[in-house]
Each structure stands twice: as structure tokens, then as C-alpha cells.
UniProtKB/TrEMBL annotation:
Record key words, sorted: Detoxification, FAD, Flavoprotein, Heme, Iron, Metal-binding, NAD, NADP, Oxidoreductase, Oxygen transport, Transport
Site (Influences the redox potential of the prosthetic heme and FAD groups): K83, E396
Organism: Chengkuizengella axinellae
Gene3D superfamilies: Globins, Nucleotide-binding domain of ferredoxin-NADP reductase (FNR) module, Translation factors
Active site positions, chain numbering: Y94 (charge relay system), E136 (charge relay system)
Reaction it catalyzes: 2 nitric oxide + NADPH + 2 O2 = 2 nitrate + NADP(+) + H(+); 2 nitric oxide + NADH + 2 O2 = 2 nitrate + NAD(+) + H(+)
Protein's UniProt keywords contain Protein transport: no
Full protein name: Flavohemoprotein
Cofactor: heme b; FAD
Gene behind this protein: hmpA
């Protein structure tokens, strides 16, 4: 890319920061209007809540701000590429995205979007798209050629369905063809594709963390039934899985993906912090650590409304009782009377940094956390203020990437 193009792209950074979400909202409206088939890929709920628009705006802004050194945003590119590979995004869809992104920029900026600016953005988008396509092609190849791997979506049978709490149910997934399944790294997820949900004209794809350690003969996902409130409807896929999918039914899933994974290159203690259904990737990590790294200290800190909403409580308690490396700590927002009598939790209310500091021996640890976005922002800020090294802070958003810092 020549210096003049870079200069022009850089000059648009302020307006992208100011009007990015407006541009991406117009982009999705135009693209889905002209290509409704893409509604079979994108999460409709994230569209309605504005999360997808916000995430895309952030990505476009980051690309523009770093257009002269795209390597700096390679970690962001790889995280998005994992999502794209899991969803089945193809190279031929990138020109469609590019066309409608340029149309949206032109519509929102009007006369300010000069021919010079539009030409520069067309060139820049082509380069950025080529980076994504290249990274994703490597991921597709890796997923397909892995032992037990496969291309796109594969049929799995619901081998077992187990209620874990008042709102979370586990689904054990066995390959319909009886062949080997690929391994994965603790913390990764699969996409599940539902084509025939009654009353829905589009397919729906959702990504769920794998909630057990790797190298089993089945996969396990543990799904929260997303209840609607105010203007937000019930979760389409989570409700269908809970209410209509039973043992023996067949579902389609993609091979494991994701970059929220355990760092096994050092021996720092591990702190796993979760809120609600955010514990699912943490259970995978915990099970792996107990099986493969039995000398590494693990602090499993979980927040739930109360015991009725606390999935895998007995499992974690049993691991902590059996393995000296595991210390389990529980925080209940609104404990029941029975909870209070049993004293099977350490704190009432919310996880707070002063409490975390009192129960952890040091800030020198590898921290992983997942849960509701407000919960994650509090944990992130607290860890940063405590002086935890940036490279030892790891987190996962369920859904489009959000801003972790206020």
C-alpha cells in the first residue's frame, strides 16, 4: 500500500471513532437487504442488541488506525478468524462485505466521502480482506487435516442430556459416523447449527464452549437457557436445545475453535474466575489441569445467584476434596436459606477485588475469567490495578468482542 493511501486512511480515523457504529449499522442493513442468505450465518440477537455493530466498528477503527502496521492487530485478526472459521465464512463472501461497507461509508459521510477517500478505502479493504482470508484458510486446513478433523459442519448425536442447574443443561455430543473426533485446547468452543427451528425461516448458528477436558470420545457443551426480558426475546437456539432437542437427536457442529486457551508454557498458579455460565470453559481448563498438570496450583473462583443456579458445584467440590492442587471459592449473590445453613459458599454478594486479594496468595498468577460483560470489566480493572502482568490476563466474551476497559 502506498504512502498516500495510508495517509488518507489515517485521516479518516477520527470520523470512524465518532461515527463507526452508525456506519456499521447502515452496512448490515444494506448487506442483509441485498443478501438475505447471510442471515443464515449471523447471530440475529447480537444484531438487535447492537453488539455486532459495535464490534465491527471497533475492528474497522483498529484496522484504520494501524493500517501502516497491520501486524500489531494480528491477535485481533486471529480471534475474529477463529469465529469466522467456526461459522463457515468463505473467501467469496468478502467482496460482498467490502462492497456494502464502502456503500455504508459513502451513505453516512455523504460529500465528505470523496472519490479519493473511497478509492483509498477500497484498496485498504482489499488488503485487510486478503489478510483475513489467508489466516482463515490456514485454520480451515488445520481443522480438516487434524486427526478426527472435518470440514464445515458434521452430524453429531445427542448421546446424553443432563440438567446441571436451574438454567444450564449439558449436551454430550457423539459423532453420528462413529469415527474419531479431533482434540481441542481447554477453553475452545464449537458452533452448533440449527436448520429447522419451528417458526424460524433462517438457520441459526451459536457458539458454545466445550465444558470438559479434551481427548474424550464425545464433546460436551453446557448451555444456559437465555430467558428474555423487556424488549429482548428468549434465546432462539438455547431455548430450542433445552425444550426440544433430546437424546438420540442429531445436530450439526463445526470443529473446535478459539484462542481463549490455557498457557501451558510456564508454571504460575492458575486462577479461574467465572460468573454464571461463564464457568463452562473454566470447567474444561480445571478438568485438564487435574488430569495433566497435577502439581500446578488452581484457584477456582465462581459467582452465581445461588446454589439453584450453580452448575457443576458437586463436581468442583469433589475435585477440590480429592486434589490438593485445587482450591474452590464460591460467591452467591442471593443465597437461599438452605445455602446459608449449609455454608457451602465463601462470600455473599458480588466478587470484589479486596476479597480476591484476601483469598489469593499473590497477584503473580495466570488469570482467566469469563462471564457477563459488566462482571468482566470489574475483574479486568481490578487485576490491572493490582499490578497483574498484561500477558497473564486472559478473558473471553460470549458473543461479539466488547470493550473491556471503560
Amino acid at each position: 500500500m502506498n504512502q498516500e493511501t495510508i495517509k488518507i486512511i489515517k485521516s479518516t480515523v477520527p470520523v470512524l471513532q465518532e461515527r463507526g457504529e452508525e456506519i456499521t449499522s447502515v452496512f448490515y442493513k444494506l448487506m442483509f437487504g441485498n443478501h438475505p442468505e447471510l442471515l443464515n450465518i449471523f447471530n440475529h440477537a447480537n444484531q438487535k442488541q447492537g453488539r455486532q455493530q459495535k464490534a465491527l466498528a471497533g475492528s474497522v477503527y483498529a484496522a484504520a488506525a494501524n493500517i501502516d502496521n497491520l501486524e500489531t492487530i494480528l491477535p485481533v485478526v486471529k480471534a475474529i478468524a477463529h469465529k469466522h472459521r467456526s461459522l463457515g465464512i468463505k473467501p467469496e463472501q468478502y467482496p460482498i462485505v467490502g462492497k456494502h461497507l464502502l456503500l455504508a461509508i459513502k451513505e453516512v459521510l455523504g460529500d465528505a466521502a470523496t472519490d479519493e477517500i473511497m478509492k483509498a478505502w477500497e484498496e485498504a479493504y482489499g488488503i485487510i480482506a486478503d489478510v483475513f482470508i489467508s489466516v482463515e484458510q490456514e485454520m480451515y486446513q488445520e481443522a480438516e487435516t487434524a486427526n478426527g478433523g472435518w470440514k464445515d459442519f458434521r452430524n453429531f448425536v445427542i448421546d446424553k442430556k443432563v440438567e446441571e442447574s436451574k438454567v444450564i443443561t449439558s449436551f454430550y455430543l457423539r459423532p453420528e459416523d462413529g469415527k474419531q473426533i479431533s482434540s481441542f485446547q481447554p477453553g475452545q468452543y464449537i458452533s452448533i447449527k440449527m436448520d429447522d427451528i419451528e417458526g424460524q425461516k433462517n438457520s441459526h448458528i451459536r457458539q458454545y464452549s466445550l465444558s470438559d477436558s479434551p481427548d474424550k470420545s464425545v464433546y460436551r457443551i453446557s448451555v444456559k437457557k437465555e430467558a428474555g426480558f423487556e424488549d429482548r426475546p428468549d434465546g432462539v437456539v438455547s431455548s430450542y436445545l433445552h425444550d426440544h432437542v433430546n437424546e438420540g437427536d442429531v445436530v450439526k457442529i463445526s470443529a473446535p475453535a478459539g484462542d481463549f486457551v490455557l498457557n501451558t508454557n510456564h508454571d504460575l498458579p492458575i486462577v479461574l474466575i467465572s460468573g454464571g455460565v461463564g464457568l463452562t470453559p473454566m470447567i474444561s481448563m480445571l478438568n485438564h489441569l487435574v488430569e495433566k498438570e497435577p502439581t500446578r496450583p488452581v484457584y477456582f473462583v465462581h459467582a452465581a445467584i445461588n446454589s439453584e443456579y450453580h452448575a457443576f458445584r458437586n463436581h468442583v467440590q469433589q475435585l477440590a476434596a480429592k486434589h490438593d492442587q485445587v482450591k474452590s471459592l464460591v460467591c452467591y449473590q442471593s443465597p437461599t436459606e438452605q445455602d446459608k445453613q449449609s455454608s457451602e459458599f465463601e462470600k455473599e454478594g458480588f466478587i470484589e477485588m479486596e476479597w480476591l486479594k484476601s483469598i489469593l496468595p499473590s497477584h503473580e498468577a495466570d488469570f482467566y475469567f469469563c462471564g457477563p460483560v459488566p462482571f468482566m470489566k470489574v475483574i479486568y480493572k481490578g487485576l490491572k490495578d493490582w499490578g497483574v502482568n498484561a500477558e497473564d490476563i486472559h478473558y473471553e466474551f460470549f458473543g461479539p468482542k466488547d470493550e473491556i476497559e471503560e
